[in-house]
């Protein structure tokens, strides 16, 4: 899927994840000089993560929000209630935390849309 012109990825994750995507060229500042990423470390509060997610989800220049799954667990109460199709939210693994499909809010919701017969 190609992104529409002017649509960005947003990243909420650890330093390694954000650095990798920034080196790949996804870093941008909007017209208000707000970045499209948040580096989460030991000093980052849950409130800061919640604010970043809320702000990214309201920006009309962001099409996809990538979030490390271990960070997503910190704001699971928000992700479980997020229903907007755009920006899409994708939970991704980090270097130190493997991906667990059972924790992914969006994947669980998608599985619930289909019966077991349809998935075979």
TrEMBL record:
GO terms for cellular component: proton-transporting V-type ATPase, V1 domain. SUPFAM superfamilies: AtpF-like. Coiled coil: none annotated. One of its GO terms (molecular function) is proton-transporting ATPase activity, rotational mechanism. The keyword Lyase does not apply. It comes from the Eukaryota. Keywords: Hydrogen ion transport, Ion transport, Transport. Gene3D superfamilies: ATPase, V1 complex, subunit F. V-ATPase is a heteromultimeric enzyme made up of two complexes: the ATP-hydrolytic V1 complex and the proton translocation V0 complex. Belongs to the V-ATPase F subunit family. Subunit of the V1 complex of vacuolar(H+)-ATPase (V-ATPase), a multisubunit enzyme composed of a peripheral complex (V1) that hydrolyzes ATP and a membrane integral complex (V0) that translocates protons. V-ATPase is responsible for acidifying and maintaining the pH of intracellular compartments. This is V-type proton ATPase subunit F. The lineage of its organism: Eukaryota, Metazoa, Spiralia, Lophotrochozoa, Annelida.
